[in-house]
């Protein structure tokens, strides 16, 4: 009996030490923001007393967070500054890649020369919407070399790829608004008459899925990969679309998933932009006022706010931390929900 008690005490000591070490490794950062509840089920997603933490600041327009599990670090971009940053709990913030997009002088036609949205792949590589170079590329974080996945549609250059998501079979979906071009739709170097939503298959073929959105922006896939979500960052039509996909990835039907028109107003920063999906199908969508949380049917549950426009978000750490690029800063919040990509 004494030996059993000794063994039990030893196990408990080890477990408690592990929990203590885990807590010690997570630093305390300044808090900001608040939560807005639209439906009581929002508390199933995030605790009412949760801390929203500011982990880095000093950026012109932070974008495209992606958590790289192989090294336990966050990558995100500052699009106007043409810089890709790396952040980790242990090492803090550092410049990871500069230039992140266009290499060489700006020809005078670009509004934003840097890379924008990122998506971390299971193998450790990162798919990158290279707004400045006007391509979709794959970045190897080890060598920092980029490989172009798609650069044109029907022989015409893309406008400025904005955000990307990868399906489990390797197909890549992305949006292509004109935000990276001076003059936007009136830019003299804009070769496509529309702003599209696309799929790039593993053989390199490019397929147009929709050409009817004015400013397609953020993009995400449902847990079963049969629904594609796309945000439209237009104050005249601030919506999120849901596209039903067949096995190939072609659109079979589409509908307006949610509308944020009623949330627009003075002092409410942001428009529909980047998104992340939880394993239970809840959608975390940046929009007016912060990150809006929707259930799989489009019901608005609540909003996570930092006080500034939030451009994009991604799950990180163990899958229960939501990282948010928010104008001049990057923030994070612990959730009860779990990130989808941590189970793929």
Walkthrough of the structure:
The protein is mostly beta strands and 344 residues long. The protein has one domain (29-343): TolB, C-terminal domain (Neuraminidase, 6 Propeller). The protein has one helix at 2-25, and strands at 34-37, 52-57, 62-68, 73-78, 83-88, 92-97, 118-120, 126-130, 135-140, 145-150, 152-153, 156-157, 163-166, 172-176, 196-200, 206-210, 216-221, 227-232, 239-245, 251-259, 275-277, 283-287, 290-294, 300-305, 312-316, 321-326, 329-334. The strands form 7 sheets. A 5-stranded antiparallel beta sheet has the order 1-24-23-22-21, with no helix packed on it. A 4-stranded antiparallel beta sheet has the order 2-27-26-25, with no helix packed on it. Mean pLDDT is 92; it is low at 1-24.
Intertermini distance: 45 Å
Nearest-integer average pLDDT:
92
- Domains counted in the coordinates: how many? 1
Structural class: mainly beta
Rounded Rg: 20 Å
CATH architecture: 6 Propeller
CATH topology: Neuraminidase
Lateral arrangement of strands in the main beta sheet: 1-24-23-22-21
Helix content: under 10%
Element order: H for helix, E for strand? HEEEEEEEEEEEEEEEEEEEEEEEEEEE
Principal-axes geometry comes out as: globular
CATH class: Mainly Beta
Largest sheet: 5 strands, antiparallel
Uncertain regions: pLDDT < 50 for 5+ in a row?
1-24
Q: What would the keywords be for this entry?
A:
344 residues; five-stranded antiparallel beta sheet; single chain; 41% strand; mainly beta; 7% helix; 1 helix; Neuraminidase; four-stranded antiparallel beta sheet; 27 strands
